[in-house]
Design brief:
about 160 residues; alpha/beta; Nucleotidyltransferase, domain 5; 3-stranded antiparallel β-sheet; about 30% helix
Length: about 160
């Protein structure tokens, strides 16, 4: 008696896979809930015949030109004179922004030098001081003192919003 060996097939039967996936898709579609997206709920203001006048906030603009030259509010100035200039202008409004605007051809190191100098200034009792000016302050008091509002706009912000 001779038995013949049937070879084991190396194929995976996939004939019913499509049916099973189709049934699973239908099952999940039927059992899941769809959330309807609602828009933002807000109340529009009533038409006002006398709208408030919003004045443009003055700021201090520090332009950095090629070669490291500075212009503060359109006037040429050395970096050492910026501290005194800011003292006068931030005395009445300590939250007034100081904007650093480097020219595209200016050196990156010049912008960092100006930024580092401005970050060393703090507002102590509404007066703009450097750390060396007030040696009586402790390190905790110095850290608690308020930094000035320094910003550096990106080139895209300058292109879109600068006028």
């Amino acid at each position: 008696m001779k038995f013949s060996r049937r070879g084991v097939s190396d194929e995976i039967p996939t004939s019913s896979m499509a049916d099973i996936t189709f049934l699973l898709i239908i099952f999940f579609m039927v059992t899941s809930t769809f959330a309807a997206t609602r828009g933002l709920d807000f109340a529009l203001p009533k038409d006002d015949k006398d709208p408030p006048i919003v004045e443009k906030e003055d700021s201090v603009l520090i332009s950095i030109r090629p070669g490291g030259t500075l212009e503060v509010d359109g006037r040429p100035m050395q970096l050492s004179g910026v501290h005194e200039y800011l003292k006068r202008h931030l005395e009445n409004n300590p939250v007034k922004p100081v904007i650093i605007r480097p020219e595209p051809t200016a050196a990156y190191g010049d912008m960092v030098r100006v930024y580092d100098t401005l970050r060393q200034l703090r507002l102590v009792d509404r007066k703009l001081v450097m750390r060396d000016d007030v040696p009586s302050l402790s390190d905790e008091q110095w850290e608690a003192a308020r930094n000035i509002n320094v910003s550096i706009p990106t080139q895209r912000e300058i292109d879109q919003f600068w006028y």
